[in-house]
């Protein structure tokens, strides 16, 4: 075991504990994943990638709506992450429903959970569960290409 004399920390133990925590939390450290690539690891990386993409979009969009990042405009965020076709459909949805087309509501959620639902035909489904101040929740389903392209669909949960 290697000991750093300036801090007295055992590096091997720190790396092992960190790796264990990451893996227990469902995340794989890139360096560790590169060393040992078990079957299906590319699929796991894609799952993490699509969840990260939806999470990044959602959080940046929320910041833009709330004005907490003055360098971001909601339209710019949508243009960066969403296909032009989806953007057009969302504009139509907003006009019809008089609500925010991403949040699917007239107000902003207080928090959210993001989870991978499954994949097929080159796309993954990621579900964002939005939590509102009155205790209500809304599930919004995202369709994301596995090849890293822009989010291609966003809709209410199937009935």
What does this structure look like?
Keywords: Signal. This is DUF3828 domain-containing protein. This protein has 159 residues and is of the alpha+beta class. It folds into 2 domains: 36 residues, no CATH class; 116 residues, Nuclear Transport Factor 2, Chain: A (Roll). It contains 5 helices and 4 strands. Strands 1-2-3-4 form a 4-stranded antiparallel β-sheet, covered by helices on one side. The longest helix has 26 residues. The protein is globular, with a radius of gyration of 19 Å. It starts with 10 loop residues before the first helix and ends with a strand. The N terminus is likely disordered.
Quick structural overview:
This protein is α+β, with helices and mostly antiparallel strands. It has helices at 11-24, 30-35, 41-66, 74-81, 84-97, and strands spanning 111-120, 123-131, 137-145, 153-156.
Our count of domains comes out at 2
Question: What best-fitting shape do the alpha-carbon axes yield?
Answer: globular
| Strand element count | 4
Helix content: 40-55%
- Report the structural category: alpha+beta
CATH topology of the largest domain: Nuclear Transport Factor 2, Chain: A
Major sheet characteristics: 4 strands, antiparallel
Signal peptide: 1-33
Protein name: DUF3828 domain-containing protein
Keywords: Signal
């Amino acid at each position: 075991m290697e000991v750093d004399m300036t801090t007295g920390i055992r590096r091997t133990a720190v790396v092992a504990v960190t790796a264990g925590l990451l893996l227990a939390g469902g995340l794989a450290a890139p360096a560790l994943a590169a060393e040992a690539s078990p079957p299906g690891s590319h699929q796991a990386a894609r799952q993490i990638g699509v969840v990260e993409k939806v999470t990044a979009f959602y959080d940046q969009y929320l910041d833009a709506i709330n004005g907490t990042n003055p360098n971001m405009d909601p339209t710019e965020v949508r243009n960066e992450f969403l296909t032009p076709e989806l953007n057009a459909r969302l504009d139509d949805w907003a006009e019809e429903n008089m609500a925010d087309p991403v949040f699917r509501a007239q107000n902003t959620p207080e928090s959210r959970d993001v989870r991978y639902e499954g994949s097929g035909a080159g796309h993954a489904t990621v579900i964002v569960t939005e939590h509102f101040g009155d205790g209500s929740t809304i599930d919004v389903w995202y369709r994301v290409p596995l090849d890293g392209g822009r989010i291609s669909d966003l809709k209410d949960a199937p009935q």
